[in-house]
Structures are given as structure tokens and as C-alpha cells.
Inverse folding.
């Protein structure tokens, strides 16, 4: 059985996500070492619907998280995730 981390974004801010993940990695350097991830964007505020999924995924990868799936509720986000495969 494989444990998978689900990261629910509450803000659509890749710079803030980068800072928060960097802080966590500074506390425990190998904490995210190749950790499988489901990136959840389905609970973002309605005002933050324009996503750059490739940027968010790149930030996660930079810190050792390996995005396996995106959990989304809008057709636009689902299409963007499918486009990234």
C-alpha cells in the first residue's frame, strides 16, 4: 500500500507556496523526498480560478513532491490537468 499526500491549496499563489514548502524543507530536509502528491485545487476561492498548473507543479517538484494527480472541480482546471497529462 502506498501513502499519498493530498495538498489542498487555499490560495492560488505559487510564490507563497514556494516559501511555505521551502520553510517546511528547512525544518526537515528530506521530508518531501520524492513524495507522491495529489494537488487539490477544488477548494480555491472563486476569485482565484485562473491557475498556472504547470507552475504550481514545478514548485512542488522543486521541493521533492511528485504530483501524480490534480483534484479539481471546474471543467477548466480538469482540462488544464489533462493537458499536462
Amino acid at each position: 500500500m502506498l501513502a499519498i499526500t493530498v495538498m489542498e491549496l487555499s490560495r492560488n499563489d505559487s510564490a507563497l507556496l514556494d516559501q511555505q514548502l521551502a520553510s517546511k524543507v528547512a525544518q526537515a530536509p528530506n521530508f518531501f523526498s520524492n513524495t507522491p502528491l495529489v494537488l487539490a485545487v477544488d477548494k480555491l476561492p472563486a476569485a482565484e480560478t485562473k491557475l498556472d498548473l504547470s507552475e504550481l507543479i514545478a514548485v512542488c517538484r522543486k521541493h521533492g513532491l511528485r504530483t501524480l494527480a490534480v483534484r479539481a472541480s471546474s471543467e477548466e482546471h480538469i482540462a488544464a490537468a489533462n493537458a499536462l497529462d
Summary: The mean pLDDT is 91. The chain has three helices and three strands.
